[in-house]
Write a structure and sequence with these properties.
The chain has helices spanning 5-8, 39-47, 61-73, 103-117, and strands at 11-15, 51-55, 80-84. It has a 3-stranded parallel β-sheet with strand order 1-2-3. It has one domain (5-117): HAD superfamily/HAD-like (Rossmann fold), CATH 3.40.50. The chain starts with a helix and ends with a helix. By secondary structure, it is of the alpha/beta class.
Length: 118
């Protein structure tokens, strides 16, 4: 029986636009978006402690392949154990299991927690 990383580590779900890459006002420029500074290093640090899932509101066959290529070209595809498309678009998401902070804030909190517990 194969044991998957998601079965042994806590799961961290990240959004794509505005978390991994810079967001724009357009919905037809996914291939040209730039990565947010420090994302590869943050993902590398988090991948040791979490099963990372990418969830995005992006939808459509062409957008799927553009997104997959973007992740591969930026050298970060291997950090994600799962990629989920078609997240419902909304102005607000309410979830009793997690908060809404930036990736950098999350990593800073994790680092501070690790320093206290060591």
């Amino acid at each position: 029986m194969q044991v998957y990383k998601v079965d042994t580590l806590p799961v961290l779900v990240l959004d794509m636009d505005g978390v991994i890459c810079n967001e724009t006002d357009r919905w037809d420029d996914f291939a040209e978006r730039t990565m947010i500074e420090g994302v590869p290093e943050m993902l590398a640090a988090l991948a040791v402690k979490y099963s990372i899932v990418l969830q995005t509101a992006r939808t459509g066959r062409e957008v799927f392949w553009v997104t997959v290529r973007w992740l591969q070209e930026h050298g970060i595809a291997h950090y994600f154990d799962e990629v989920i498309f078609n997240k419902p678009f909304a102005q607000h998401y309410v979830d009793d299991k997690g908060g809404c902070i930036s990736l950098a804030e999350f990593v800073a909190e994790e680092t501070a927690h690790d320093a206290i517990t060591e």
